[in-house]
Design goal:
Helix content is about 40%, strand content about 15%. β8, α8 and β9 form a beta-alpha-beta unit.
């Protein structure tokens, strides 16, 4: 069977099993829309605080705004307990999500110290309660993001996955590291293989060390997971979704030319400026730009230039962009401009 194929998350039927994972500070609605246009079958929001939703925080609820053309909205929530979750449901449902994901995997101290994220890995019973609350109160497919455990001496992914599935989760996504490992040294894909072997009839989504289309194919083939979710590997590289489709069809995963990289980055920036305002967009784009031009000729010089850009025009100048391109300044939309490195 083709590694890339349709998959269902409960009642939600998707055209492929290749997703954009939730990533705080990156998977805003503009970047989600870009990845969806490149072939991602589903794109998760940044982490949304249930407490923030309940308190109607403007910044929190804005994370749930749909991208242009985002047919299926997958909202990732986080909270320390089921009581906090239930208070947020009405606010979340105002945005008509297609699916709810619950985060039990974030290892960042400011999240875990509140009892949320990876802190919940030590409380499988609470994970079960949260899933049951979400399934019952929303009627939507619910997925759960976990890690392998708190540390290598406390691997409990089978127990947390069982708690989630037993209470109605449609899928479990595991980042194949422990909380203590953060993002180093490497993901243990053997944990994903073991998880799928224990739950052969359930949908398992794999994450961790997916930095290329070839990595995605290897994870699907080697671990047997039902889907893969690209996180850091998609930042500055939304092309990975087109590339993995090509590989799955026996075609070459073509590396985009520098001109296309520049065009795609500028398209993202212009849309961000329209949605979030030029000042915010230009600050936020710096981290994306560094990823876009990592590992290419003259990439270090380009990254050095863009870190001081404060306007869309300055980004164009830094990239030495010429010709017509979708413009925040009102210019017509067209492709084919020239990039000179």
């Amino acid at each position: 069977m083709n590694s890339v194929h349709p998959v269902s998350l409960g009642s939600l039927h998707l055209e492929s099993n290749v997703f954009l994972a939730p990533l705080a500070g990156y998977t805003d609605r503009v970047f989600r829309g870009l990845c969806l246009s490149k072939g991602a079958a589903l794109a998760y929001t940044e982490m949304v605080s249930c407490e923030g939703v309940f308190r109607e925080s403007v910044k929190t609820v804005a994370l749930m705004e749909r991208a242009d053309g985002e047919k299926n909205l997958a909202v990732q929530l986080f909270a320390p307990d089921s009581d906090t979750v239930i208070r947020s449901v009405d606010g979340v449902m105002k945005y008509s999500p297609s699916l709810i994901d619950f985060n039990c995997g974030c290892p960042v101290p400011k999240v875990t110290k509140t009892g949320a994220g990876s802190a919940l890995l030590s409380k499988p019973e609470e994970i079960g309660k949260i899933v049951k609350v979400l399934v019952t109160s929303t009627g939507l497919p619910v997925t759960v993001k976990i890690r392998a455990g708190w540390d290598c001496d406390n691997l409990n992914y089978l127990k947390t996955a069982d708690a989630a599935f037993s209470c109605g989760a449609s899928a479990v996504c595991m980042h194949a590291r422990t909380k203590s490992q953060l993002y180093m040294p490497y993901a243990h894909w053997e944990y994903l293989y073991d998880l799928k072997a224990h739950f052969p009839e359930k949908v398992i989504i794999g994450s961790g060390d997916l930095f290329s289309a070839a990595d995605g194919i290897r994870m699907l083939e080697q671990t047997g997971v039902d889907a893969v979710a690209f996180a850091r590997g998609a930042i500055g590289n939304p092309f990975v979704f087109e590339q993995i489709k090509a590989l799955s069809e026996g075609r070459e995963a073509v590396t985009p030319p520098v001109s296309l990289i520049a065009e795609t980055m500028m398209t993202q920036l212009v849309k961000m400026a329209q949605v979030f305002g030029e000042d915010v967009a230009c600050r936020e784009m710096r981290k994306h730009a560094c990823a876009y031009f990592k590992g290419i000729p003259n990439g270090s010089k380009i990254r050095q230039k863009v870190t001081s850009c404060n306007t869309v025009s300055q980004y164009r100048e830094a990239l030495q962009v010429r010709g017509r391109v979708a413009g925040f300044d009102g210019s017509n939309s067209a492709s084919g401009f020239v990039f000179s490195s």
